[in-house]
Amino acid sequence: MIYDKTFDVIVVGGGHAGTEAALAAARMGAATLLLTHNITTVGEMSCNPAIGGIGKGHLVKEIDAMGGAMARAADKGGIHFRILNRSKGPAVRATRAQADRVLYKQAIRYTVENQPNLVFFQQAVDDLIVKGETVRGVITQGGLRFFAKAVVLTTGTFLGGKIHIGDTQYSAGRAGDPPSIALSHRLRELPFRVGRLKTGTPPRIDGRTIDYTQLQEQKGDEPVPVFSFSGDASQHPRQVSCFITHTNVKTHEIIAAGLQRSPLYTGAIEGIGPRYCPSIEDKIVRFKEREAHQIFIEPEGLETHEVYPNGISTSLPFDIQSALVHSICGLEKAHITRAGYAIEYDFFDPRDLKSTLETKALSALFFAGQINGTTGYEEAGAQGLLAGINAACLALEKESWEPKRSESYLGVLVDDLITLGTKEPYRMFTSRAEYRLTLREDNADLRLTPIAYKLGLISETQWRAFEEKQDSIERETERLNALWVRPNTAPAKALESFFDQPLERECRALDLLRRPEMTYINMMAIDVLGPGVLDPSVAEQVETRVKYAGYISRQADEIARQARFLDLRIPKGLDYFTIKGLSTEILEKLKQHQPETLGHASRIPGVTPAAISLLLVALKKRGHWYGIENDPT
Amino acid sequence: MVQNDRDTIVAETTPRGRGGVGIVRVSGSKTAEIAEKILGGVPAVRKAEHLPFLAANQEVIDEGVALYFKAPHSFTGEDVLELQGHGGPVIMDSLIAAAVQAGARLAEPGEFSLRAYLNHKIDLCQAEAIADLINATSEAAARGALRSLQGVFSNEIDALVQEVITLRMYVEAAIDFPEEEIDFLKDDRIIQMLQNIKIKLEKIRTGAKQGRLLSEGIRVAIIGRPNAGKSSLLNYLAGHEAAIVTDVPGTTRDVLREKICLDGLCIDLVDTAGLRMGAEAIEREGIRRALKEAAIADHLVMMVDGMTTTETDPDILFSEWLAHFKTDIGRTVLFNKIDKLNLLPSVVEKENHTVISLSVKTGEGISLFREHLKKVVGFSVAEEGNFTARRRHLEALAKAEHHLLAGENQLVQHKAGELLAEELREVQKALDQITGKFSSDDLLGKIFSEFCIGK
């Protein structure tokens, strides 16, 4: 049966990738359908109830800068906010929020329901409609045929999902939800490379059975941080604390004794888990010398007693889970409300994707989220945004958007995925970004909002607010640059209390602010120099830009130098065999990856700089020159 | 389409030395602006104009011919200004300084060629030749980069790279996992590691210097009896009158040096006083210096006057001076003045030396000598010589040290862990150029700076 309306974009899946994808496509004006097997789980946080963190917070801010939902939902659902790395400099600072699952989900659901051009439909998808090498739509479990110009698959852990608890296993998409078996089988018939990954969750605990007096309290930051560029602290619900406890030698003995019943060690799990987020049994085995591992007791919400003990994700049998929990200080009498589990699922090798997240094999088909081998809500949401944008671009016949490594974490994420692939669930870290000092949380809007505006992702109101902020930053920077401080004047004397030596000559206020000992707030407290701007986000930009100026201009030079060569497009179907001098090994790699640009080619492991030079010359010979489309030669 | 939006570069394009004419070339978007400042106006396109060249303070540096080319019709494809003045380092340096003050920056070696290449000014044939060269040289560089350093250095550098990686691991972990109770930035371990790396790096650099790795090029000393034609050879190869040549034996009383460029390979050519016994005091001093040069040279060119002997065995020819020469040094005997003997140029390989018959006066056989010289100083197009690799390594070590110190300063003075991390990334990048993982973009720039391509 054919559904009577044709869409521009169909998004399959209502998780963090799916909702951002559907919202982005709809914001751009594409007639969008969000298909999910269960409308009530839209915006569900299936793993820990937190948004952000190092690298991840950066992604959330980027999504926000492009009009996405995640940061605003975190502001409405966040019950404990912190800025991590506060002592380490703005580039590596990141926001993290514990969220009330219910409030977060509500906020996402509200945004999705009220988004023009976007409709829901509840039914699982079993099949794709493929004509030639183009995807035209999907077929649901009930046999409904939906047609669209582009389809985005965000199936999370549902493809071939299998849950393990001890020696028992069953098929599931996540605890309590059915997996997508039919779709998984169908996709395995298509020309994509498939792998298996694993992730896990800890058992959940009834907070009333925890002895909090034994735990170390961790309060949220004051004043409470805000996630969204357009948000404010008044949107936050009541704030609560997290707590910290540790495993101990006894815990480790219990786990060691149960290892032979862990599916990780019996061989029942073939999928590869993340090294940076190991299960507690993994930690015990790999770091034998450690006598304690940290556990964060995170609240699941304001209206529930359930808590999430972050740090003891496990797939051990329930009796061992229970014993290990009870061996932990403060959790001696804890009641487990849900068992921890490991889940294995299919993912598709992201090297089969273009940097728009469209598949290379089938056009008009986009993948986003865990299906691409990533983990985390933030990574999923960022990909969803990108896939949604490009699906809409395709449907609306606009030029697609390929984020660059030098421009955003989103660019780093996608570039890593499509050029390197992944062996474990991929998670963002700041160390993945070579332009880390440029890609900061605080300037995500300055980096991406202009792009979002051009793509039609943000409203005129948001754009005007952004422009105003940008103007204030320029004006204040200019003011401090034009403001001179003479030695032996009152402001100079006031400044000298911060410096080792008195001012010897006339200095620009901006140059004085550049000094590590000086802060904007301290400077503005001085008569004549202050009061400066009131908006702290403007002040922060003025200060950070001047403090990082040398490094940022060095990175900017590097970016410009790289761009000359690395943005050069490699024509589709280029016959690498015609290029003299490439080794067989490199030929194979290039053939397999089919990189889109010289930059992608250069980052494929094993492709040597010499090979890139040869490619460059070969491309020049063919008249494809860097960034110059209408090359006459 | 030609890109003319790059920054503007300046360099002397004639070989460094005391030539009659020296040319300074400026290329890039600010060329017209610079012409305005140095010449007081932009010369007509492609017309030679005789003008005074002005410094920033309006003083006349020199007078000469100015040529202006408008993009894309120039060597580089960008706006180009050529200032042809009187040769000599002082004038050339002043002209370059004037251009820099007017907004240009010093060109990297080979950068003009690189721009010409990027702007389609080099044809397909040349592009292919470049490809071959890139392939041959960079593959060799990657394979043999470590090998080309002396064994002991390569081990030390390897150890150093490992330590840098370990340090970065700690720093990055502290940044990316602030909640994991591993904030190494707060304890002394990182400072300690930084100190260790600093000491190691310093040691390697000192060692490298002692190994004469810092020397600018391969040193080739020309020795021989008086009036054998040593100075003439130097002049011939240098392309201008660097040494005073007369018919009077013993004219060269001091040591003369000239840098010559053979296909991008720099050679320090040293002309010495003629060797003879029983000379007067001043000449004896010249001979003493000549022998000193011979003792530290990488290769000896032994000049023989074919009119005076038929002997070509260096052990016999220079028997009385043998004790002064390194035993394992490469030796080339040049049997000169074949024009007067009616002989043909030739190369004869002997067991421990080579004999080349030539005439410096007519130039017959000089090309044989050039090719031979390239071979003996370790350069062939198929494989990058140790020489260039070594220089690159030293440059990389210097850069690594610079960033290491900057990083230490960021951590110790300002507690800026993320800036330490950034500097360490640069350290690694510098060291990567030795261990072979450097980026393609860097490599390209390097290659074009190491080799005179497309001229």
Summed up:
The complex is a heterodimer of chains A (633) and B (455). Chain A contains 20 helices and 22 strands. Chain A has 633 residues and is of the alpha+beta class.
What this model shows, in words?
The complex is a heterodimer of chains A (633) and B (455). Chain A contains 20 helices and 22 strands. Chain A is α+β, with helices and mostly antiparallel strands and 633 residues long. In chain A, strand 8 (134-140) and strand 9 form a beta hairpin. In chain B, helix 5 packs antiparallel against helix 13 (417-435). The two termini of chain B are 21 Å apart. With 455 residues, chain B is α/β, with parallel strands linked by helices. Chain B has helices at residues 31-39, 89-101, 111-118, 124-148, 151-176, 189-210, 230-238, 281-296, 314-317, 338-341, 366-376, 386-414, 417-435, 440-450; strands at 9-12, 21-27, 49-54, 60-69, 80-86, 105-106, 218-224, 256-262, 265-271, 299-305, 330-336, 346-349, 354-357. Residues 127-151, 210-216, 240-245, 378-389 and 438-455 of chain B have low confidence and may be disordered. Chain A binds chain B through residues 54-55, 84-85, 87-89, 91-92, 276, 294, 296, 429-431, 434, 436-437, 516, 551, 561-562, 564-566, 580-581, 598, 602, 608-610, 612-614, 616-618, 620-621, 625, 628, 630-633, and chain B through 1, 3, 118, 120, 124, 127-128, 130-132, 134-135, 138-139, 142, 172, 174-181, 185, 413-419, 421-422, 425, 438-444, 447.
Overview features:
heterodimer; A: 633 residues; alpha+beta; six-stranded antiparallel β-sheet; 36% helix; disordered C terminus; B: 455 residues; alpha/beta; Gyrase A, domain 2; Rossmann fold; 3 domains; seven-stranded mixed β-sheet; six-stranded mixed β-sheet
